[in-house]
Design brief:
The complex is a heterodimer of chains A (436) and B (393). Chain A has 436 residues and is mainly alpha-helical. Chain A has 19 helices and no strands. Chain A has a single domain (91-428), classed as Na+/H+ antiporter like fold, CATH 1.20.1530. Chain A is globular. The two termini of chain A are 36 Å apart. Helices cover 72% and strands 0% of the residues of chain B. Chain B has helices at 15-19, 28-35, 38-41, 51-61, 71-94, 100-131, 139-151, 164-175, 178-193, 197-222, 228-249, 253-266, 271-297, 302-329, 338-341, 348-359, 363-386. Chain B has a single domain (74-386), classed as Up-down Bundle (Na+/H+ antiporter like fold), CATH 1.20.1530. The radius of gyration of chain B is 20 Å and the shape is globular. Chain B is mainly α and 393 residues long. The chains are: A mainly alpha (436), B mainly alpha (393). At the A-B interface, helix 1, helix 3, helix 12 and helix 14 of A face helix 5, helix 10, helix 11 and helix 13 of B.
Chain lengths: 436, 393
C-alpha cells in the first residue's frame, strides 16, 4: 500500500513538474528528473515483477516502455536520451561482474565442454539463419533487388545481426537473480565467447559485403590488424586495470563501491578514447581481479551489489524508454517470423551442442533460454551497418531494432524461468553462507 | 556538517592515511596539511578548506587551461552539480534541531547570516548603481545573490574539535546557512524566471513543495525497503528526484534539498538516520565534483573583479559584527569572538554561486561565480590565520 502511494506521489510530482515547466529550456535540464523518477519508479516495477516471479530486469524494461515517449510520455524523448547517460558505465559494470564470476580454477574442468557447445550453437544458428534469409529474401524488406554474390554478402551481414546475443542482458539476469550453478556458468561462458565470435564474424562479413558491393578488395590486412588490435588491446587494458584493482583490494580494500564505479568509468572512457571493446576489457578486468586478487568474500560482493543495482535500474529503464514501438509496428510480421526462426535454431543448436559436449539433459533443455536476449551489441553493429552501407543498412537496422524490442522483453523472462527451474536462483547467497 | 569517523565502508583512517603523520589543527600549516592527506585529497574524507585544493584543480582541468573538462563535459556534469546542491541542502535540513536550546542557536545564527547578507547586498547594490557594470541582470538580484554567497560560513574542520567554543561556533556555522538558503530560493527563481516578485515567490513555495513531496515519496519507499542495497537506491533516487525536479523547473536544488532534509528529520521513524548514513558515502565526492566544476566554469570576469572588493570587505565586517550580535543573543553558549570563527566560508557560497551561474548564463552569472569563488578562497586563507588556535580538552 505504501509503495503504491509512493508510486502515485512520484507520478503526480513528475507529471506536475513537467506540466508546469514545459519548454525547450526545461527539457535541456531534464536528465536529473529522468534519473530520479526512473530510479525510484523502475525499482518499484522491478520489485513488483519479482513478486510475480519474473526478472526484475523485465520490470525495469517494461517500466521504461510504459512511461517512455511511445506510450505514456511521462519520460519524454530528451529525458530518455538523458537516461542513456549511464549506458557506457552500465555495460562495463555488467561485464566486470561477469568477469568476477569466472573463477578459472573452478571452470577449468568444464571449459572444453563449454567451448564445444558454444561452437555448435553458433554454427547451427549462423548456418540456419543464413539459409532461411536466402530462401525468404523476396519477402524481407532489405535490398530486394540484390542477387548472386551481393545478396549472399548482404545476407551474411544481416545474419550476423540476427544471430548476435546480448551478454549484458544475460549477465544482468544472472546477477540480479543471484544465480549460481551449472546453467548460469554455461550460459555465461557461451554468451561471452559468442560475443567474441560475433565481433570477429561481423568484421569479416562487413569486409565481404564491401567487396561484393564493389567497395573494397578482399583480404584487407588493415581490417584484420584493426580487429587484432581491438581484441588484444582491450584484453590488455582490462588486465592492467584488473591487476590494479586487485592490488587495491589487497592493500587498501576500502570504499569499494565508489572505487568499483570509478574503475568502470575509467575503463569506459579509456575504451571509448582508444576505440577498444569496453565489454571485453571489463571482462578481462573482472577475470584478473577474481583469479589474481585476494579472497575478499562478502566485502566485494556487497560493494558490487550496492554499485550495480542503481546502474542496472537506470540502464534497463533507459533501454525500455528507447524501445522503438513504431518500428515494431512497421515490420512486426517480418520481425516475428525472423524471431521464430532464430529461437527455433537456438533451441536446436543448444540441444545438439549439449549432446556434443556431453552435458546433462537439464542443460540441454534449458540453456537456449539464456541466448535469446538481444540488446546493445546488436544495435551497435546495426548502426555500423547503416553507416557502412547507407543504401540498405537502414532497413537492416530497422529489422534489428524490431528484433531487439522483441527479444529484450522475452529473453530475460525465459532465462529467469529456466534459472528457477534449474534451482539456481539465489545460489550465490547460498554459496556465500556456505563459505561463511 | 562535520561528522566523526565511523567504522564501515566510508570514514575512518585507511591504511594509506594511517601511514601518514596525522595533520594538526593548531596552526594554519597544520590545517592545510589535512587537505593533502590521501583520503581528503581524493574527496573521500572531510578536509579543512577543501575549496583551496579543488577549485584551483578545476581551473587547471577546465576549458581555460588543460581542457580535460570540456564545455560538453561540464554540461553533462550539470546533473551532478544539481545533485550535490540538493545533497548539501538535505544535510543542512537533517541537521536542524527544533529543541529550545537549538532554537536559540538557530535564531543567533540566522541573525548573523542575515546581517552579513544585508550588509554585503546593500553596499553592493549601492556600488552597482554607481559603477554601471552592465551585468545583464537586475542589480538588486545580483547584489542579493552576492550577499547570500558571502553569508556562508564553515567553522568545522576535518578533525574533532574538543573545546566548547569551537563546537558551538561549528553549530552556528551549520545553522547560519538556513536563512540564506531560503532567501536564495527566491533569488534563484528570480534570476531564472525574471524578478517579478509574485512569480518568484510562488516558485519559492513550489521549490519547498518539491522537497516535501520528494521526501515523502522517498520515506514511503525506504521504510519498506527489503535490503540495504534497495534502501540505498531509494535514498539516492529520492535526492536525485528532488534535485532533478528543481533543476527542471529552474529553481533552487539547495532549498528543495533543505525542505526534504527537514521533512525527513520530522517524519516518524529513523528516516533521518537512514538518509544520513546512505548519503554520507557520497557527500565528499559530490562536494569535490561541485568545487572542481566551479573551478572549471570560472572565467575571467571584469565585473567579477569589481564585485570582489565589496565581497571581501563587507563579508568580513558582516561576519565580525554579526558574530558579535549572535554571541550576545546566545550568551553562554557561543564565544564572544564568534565572528572570527565564521570567517572561513566553506563550500556553500561557491555552491550557490554555481547554481546562480547555471540558471543565469549571463555576465552576472560569470561575475558572481568569479567573485564568490575567488572571494571564498581568499577568505579561507584569511581564516587559516584568524581562527583561534584549537584547545584540546
Amino acid at each position: 500500500m505504501r509503495r503504491l502511494l509512493a508510486l502515485l506521489l512520484l507520478l503526480v510530482l513528475t507529471a506536475t513538474v513537467r506540466g508546469v515547466a514545459s519548454g525547450e529550456a526545461a527539457e535541456t535540464r531534464s536528465t536529473g528528473l529522468a534519473l530520479g523518477f526512473a530510479l525510484l519508479a523502475a525499482a518499484l516495477a522491478g520489485s513488483l515483477f519479482e513478486h510475480l516471479r519474473l526478472p526484475r530486469v523485465s520490470g525495469y524494461l517494461v517500466f521504461g516502455l510504459m512511461c517512455g515517449p511511445y506510450v505514456a510520455d511521462i519520460i519524454s524523448r530528451p529525458m530518455a536520451r538523458g537516461l542513456q547517460i549511464v549506458n557506457g558505465l552500465a555495460v562495463t559494470l555488467i561485464a566486470l561482474i561477469a568477469g568476477l564470476e569466472m573463477n578459472l580454477a573452478h571452470l577449468r574442468p568444464r571449459l572444453g565442454g563449454m567451448l564445444r557447445m558454444g561452437s555448435v550453437v553458433l554454427a547451427v544458428v549462423y548456418a540456419g539463419v543464413f539459409a532461411a534469409i536466402m530462401v525468404a529474401w523476396p519477402w524481407l524488406p532489405i535490398a530486394p533487388e540484390a542477387s548472386g554474390m551481393e545478396r549472399a554478402a548482404i545476407a551474411s551481414v544481416v545474419t550476423t545481426l540476427i544471430v548476435s546475443f546480448s551478454p549484458t542482458v544475460t549477465i544482468a539476469v544472472i546477477a540480479e537473480s543471484r544465480a549460481r550453478g551449472p546453467l548460469s556458468e554455461l550460459v555465461l561462458a557461451i554468451v561471452v565467447l559468442g560475443d567474441l565470435a560475433i565481433i570477429l564474424a561481423f568484421a569479416l562479413t562487413m569486409q565481404f559485403a564491401r567487396w561484393a558491393t564493389g567497395g573494397a578488395a578482399p583480404g584487407d590486412v588493415g581490417l584484420l590488424a584493426g580487429l587484432s588490435w581491438e581484441i588484444l588491446a582491450s584484453i590488455a587494458l582490462g588486465a592492467i586495470l584488473g591487476a590494479s584493482f586487485a592490488l587495491y583490494l589487497r592493500h587498501v580494500g576500502r570504499e569499494l563501491t565508489l572505487v568499483l564505479l570509478v574503475l568502470c568509468a575509467v575503463l569506459t572512457a579509456l575504451a571509448a578514447r582508444l576505440h577498444l571493446d569496453a565489454v571485453l576489457a571489463a571482462l578481462a578486468a573482472g577475470l584478473v581481479t577474481e583469479n589474481l586478487g585476494p579472497r575478499s568474500g562478502n566485502l566485494l560482493k556487497d560493494a558490487v551489489e550496492r554499485g550495480a543495482l542503481p546502474v542496472l535500474i537506470l540502464f534497463f529503464a533507459g533501454a525500455g524508454a528507447s524501445l522503438n514501438l513504431e518500428v515494431l509496428a512497421e515490420i512486426g510480421v517480418a520481425a516475428v517470423a525472423v524471431s521464430a526462426v532464430r529461437l527455433a535454431l537456438i533451441r536446436l543448436g543448444a540441444r545438439w551442442g549439449s549432446r556434443a559436449a556431453g552435458l546433462g539433459p537439464l542443460l540441454a533443455q534449458l540453456s537456449w533460454t539464456g541466448l535469446v536476449s538481444q540488446g546493445g551489441v546488436t544495435l551497435g553493429l546495426a548502426v555500423l551497418v547503416t553507416s557502412g552501407f547507407p543504401e540498405w543498412g537502414a532497413e537492416a537496422q530497422t529489422l534489428a531494432v524490431a528484433l531487439i524490442s522483441l527479444h529484450v522483453l522475452v529473453g530475460p523472462i525465459l532465462f529467469r524461468a529456466a534459472l528457477a527451474r534449474a534451482g539456481e536462483v539465489g545460489g550465490l547467497d547460498a554459496a556465500g553462507e556456505g563459505r561463511a | 556538517m562535520a561528522h566523526g569517523p565511523e567504522p564501515g565502508e566510508m570514514g575512518g583512517p585507511d591504511p594509506i592515511d594511517s601511514a601518514l603523520e596525522a595533520g594538526g589543527g593548531a596552526t594554519a600549516a597544520g590545517r592545510l596539511h589535512v587537505l593533502f592527506r590521501s583520503r581528503a585529497a581524493l574527496g573521500l574524507a572531510p578536509a579543512a578548506a577543501p575549496a583551496l585544493l579543488f577549485v584551483p584543480l578545476g581551473v587547471v582541468l577546465g576549458p581555460a587551461a588543460l581542457g580535460l573538462l570540456s564545455d560538453e563535459a561540464l554540461t553533462h556534469l550539470d546533473t551532478v552539480v544539481s545533485l550535490a546542491l540538493a545533497a548539501l541542502g538535505v544535510f543542512i535540513g537533517l541537521g536542524l534541531d527544533v529543541r529550545p536550546a537549538e532554537r536559540r542557536l538557530l535564531a543567533a545564527a540566522s541573525m548573523e547570516s542575515l546581517l552579513t547578507v544585508a550588509l554585503v547586498a546593500s553596499t553592493t547594490a549601492f556600488l552597482l548603481a554607481r559603477w554601471d557594470l552592465r551585468l545583464e541582470a537586475p542589480s538588486a538580484v545580483v547584489a542579493l545573490a552576492l550577499g547570500i554567497v558571502a553569508s556562508a560560513s564553515s567553522a568545522g574542520a576535518a578533525e574533532e574539535w574538543h573545546d566548547l567554543p569551537h563546537q558551538s561556533a561549528t553549530r552556528i556555522a551549520d545553522l547560519d546557512d538556513v536563512a540564506p538558503i531560503l532567501i536564495g530560493g527566491f533569488v534563484i527563481a528570480a534570476a531564472a524566471h525574471g524578478p517579478s516578485a509574485p512569480s518568484a515567490g510562488l516558485l519559492t513555495v513550489a521549490t519547498i513543495a518539491i522537497g516535501v513531496a520528494g521526501a515523502l515519496a522517498g520515506w514511503l519507499l525506504f521504510e519498506t525497503a527489503t535490503g540495504e542495497a534497495e534502501r540505498a537506491v531509494f535514498v539516492a533516487g529520492a535526492v536525485l528526484l528532488v534535485a532533478g525536479c528543481a533543476a527542471y523547473m529552474g529553481v533552487s536544488p539547495l532549498l528543495a534539498g533543505l525542505a526534504a532534509g527537514v521533512c525527513w528529520r520530522l517524519l516518524p521513524g529513523p528516516a533521518d538516520r537512514v538518509v544520513r548514513e546512505n548519503l554520507r558515502k557520497f557527500q565528499h565526492p559530490l562536494v569535490v565534483v561541485l568545487l572542481v566544476v566551479a573551478g572549471a566554469t570560472l572565467s575571467r570576469s571584469v565585473p567579477g573583479v569589481w564585485l570582489l572588493a565589496p565581497f571581501l570587505t563587507f563579508r568580513l565586517a558582516g561576519k565580525l559584527i554579526g558574530g558579535w550580535f549572535a554571541s550576545r543573543l546566545a550568551a553562554g553558549v557561543t564565544p564572544s569572538h564568534l565572528g572570527s570563527y565564521l570567517i572561513a566560508p566553506g563550500v556553500l557560497g561557491i555552491a550557490f554561486a554555481l547554481n546562480f551561474r547555471q540558471v543565469s548564463a549571463s555576465r552576472a552569472g560569470d561575475a558572481l561565480l568569479f567573485a564568490g569563488a575567488v572571494g571564498s578562497l581568499l577568505s579561507e586563507v584569511l581564516a587559516l590565520f584568524a581562527v583561534p588556535p584549537k584547545r584540546q580538552s
